[in-house]
Amino acid sequence: MGLTAERDNPRLESESYGEGEKALPIVAVQDLSFRWSVRAPYVLGIGELSIQRGERIFIEGPSGSGKTTLLNLLAGVVTPDSGHIVILGTDIASLSGPERDAFRSAHIGLVFQMFNLIPYLSAIENVLLPCRFSHARRAALAEAGTTPQEEAHRLFSHLQLDSEHLLRGSVTRLSAGQQQRVAVARALIGKPELMICDEPTSALDADAARAFLQLISAEAAASGATLVFVSHDRSLAGMFDRTVELPKINHPAGALGS
Ligand SMILES: Nc1ncnc2c1ncn2[C@@H]1O[C@H](COP(=O)(O)OP(=O)(O)OP(=O)(O)O)[C@@H](O)[C@H]1O
Ligand SMILES: [Mg+2]
């Protein structure tokens, strides 16, 4: 997953966002249209969405409104039918599939709605995966004077998972709430610039959700990451710098205003 592209294209890891470009938005979406197949209706038609570096942004909308689809596009898991998605100065639609994998490994920490943990690996093996795939993440940890293993243990402790859970057995033996924490640790390890979370609090009760979100937010702030957080739970919106109501910016009917 992305190893070849990373080796062949070091620019994907290092040059996508130069020093002089820090004022540029970390995410710039322009004239985006997307549908899952040519026979399906458009899910997304977004004229413009910009997210600034360091911002903590809350994207909300009802079930089926396209939140997960948008995150998949921002992470380069799927590509738009038309329009631009510029992340850290790179238009990710212009990259090949392996290049997008390498770009994601290096720059984006992704917490999926369904966790997407690797079931035959332990919790700590899941968390260490991005460091195996990305030189940039290993380098960020080396620069901070730590190792992937040490950082995994620190994250687990900060996310209130005790180490007994880390080493033994399949990650699928953990509770849903514990698996969400593992998924968050996997996203955060190696300080990716952009942290994308899809309903990571859905398995938690209201108090636990707020506490967990505070932990994610603090970790993102400590590593300088921009946080894009999706939920249909409006009560969490106050914990963010800005809220985007997806139905207000998304006009999918004929997409791109046609
Ligand atoms: N992999 C897929 N293939 C085909 N259609 C899909 C796929 N994923 C989502 N869709 C469709 O796209 C639309 C938006 O779905 P999406 O998962 O983005 O919504 P959501 O806002 O994340 O909803 P929820 O709050 O329930 O997670 C839905 O009509 C859904 O059926
Ligand atoms: Mg969703």
Gist of the model:
This protein has 258 residues and is of the alpha/beta class. The chain has a single domain (3-249), classed as 3-Layer(aba) Sandwich (Rossmann fold), CATH 3.40.50.300. The chain has helices spanning 3-8, 11-14, 67-74, 97-107, 123-133, 135-143, 148-158, 164-167, 176-188, 206-222, 246-249; strands at 27-34, 44-51, 56-60, 82-87, 90-91, 108-111, 194-198, 226-231, 242-245.
Characterization of the model:
This protein has 258 residues and is α/β, with parallel strands linked by helices. It has 11 helices and 9 strands. It has a 5-stranded parallel sheet with strand order 6-7-8-3-9, with helices on both faces. A 4-stranded antiparallel sheet has the order 2-1-4-5, with helices on one face. The chain is globular. Bound molecules: adenosine-5'-triphosphate (ATP) and magnesium ion (MG).
Key structural traits:
single chain; 258 residues; alpha/beta; Rossmann fold; four-stranded antiparallel beta sheet; disordered N terminus; binds adenosine-5'-triphosphate; binds magnesium ion
Task: Please give the domain count.
Answer: 1
**What helical percentage do the residues reach?**
25-40%
CATH topology: Rossmann fold
Query: Which CATH first-tier class would you pick?
Result: Alpha Beta
Low-confidence stretches: 1-8
What's the alpha carbon Rg, rounded to whole Å?
A: 18 Å
Structural class by secondary-structure content:
alpha/beta
Mean pLDDT: 88
How far is the first residue's CA from the last residue's CA? 37 Å
Strand content: 15-25%
Can you tell me the overall shape? globular
At CATH level 2, the architecture is 3-Layer(aba) Sandwich
Main sheet specs: 5 strands, parallel
Would you identify the CATH H-level superfamily? P-loop containing nucleotide triphosphate hydrolases
Ligands present: adenosine-5'-triphosphate, magnesium ion
Instruction: Please list the strands of the largest sheet in the order they lie side by side.
Output: 6-7-8-3-9
- Work out the number of β strands: 9
How many helices? Answer: 11
